[in-house]
Amino acid sequence: MNNPTEKERFHHEEEFHDQWALSEDVKNIDVLNINESITAPEMRQITQSLGDLTNLRLLDLGCGRGEASVYFALQGAKVTSTDISGKMLELTQELGRRYGVDLTTHKSTAEELLLGHEKQFDVIYAGNLFHHIDLEAVLPRLTALLKDDGRLASWDPLAYNPIINVYRKMAMKVRTVDEHPLKVSDLKNFRNYFGKVELKYYWFSTLLIFIIMAVVQFRNPNKVRYWKKVVEEGKKWAPLYRPLAAFDRFILAIFPPLKYLCWNVVVIASEPIQN
Known about the structure:
The chain is built from 11 helices and 7 strands. The protein has helices spanning 6-22, 31-36, 41-50, 67-74, 86-99, 135-145, 162-170, 184-189, 208-215, 226-232, 234-254; strands at residues 57-61, 78-83, 104-107, 121-127, 146-157, 194-202, 264-272. It has a domain at 6-158 and 178-202 and 263-272: Vaccinia Virus protein VP39 (Rossmann fold).
């Protein structure tokens, strides 16, 4: 699709994620494993940073299958889940019932989010979402929804790693064409809307696991979502992941610019600025 209009982009994203939702079975979604797996460092970092969520109002923006929504609800949060895909929201509600938690769902794009009340959320979580949306348009909407002491927690892919960029070109059937992984300019933009922004980078040498999936195990990147499988199979990959993750912490401390070659970045932002 060449230069799609916003309406066309929304329609394509909704259709893609509706079809994805229809291919899922909640019985195969292990909420605890997905969020606590050793190969889910982004979510473990976010959970640690957010701390006790009991009775906090949390917005899961772009909730997808709902595994984060349900996980946060299990931690005691009062969760509102939004997504562009009505089928994903149905899947999220079904997953919530399976785990015995109540969720409020709201169908909307992030750009057109209308929830009715300003400063109502203690936490806004966005997992693997911001590289799908107009970040400049969405950030002021989010600061308006956050309480003065509220926090934003997100994770997304970065744009610069050549191995991941090759994978992106190969895996076109499990991605949408309008994705735009975050650049340094996007990360700087968070500081226009939050007084405090913390960034954590993950997956540098640990990307060896993806190479093994492709060239040793011959997994078809258009049939297997690598970023899902690596988390679901965390126990299997742990013996390799642990030393590589330790090496990543060491090498990134010595050569900080290498962080931009990581796959994902976690953003923890607080002190929302009302523009």
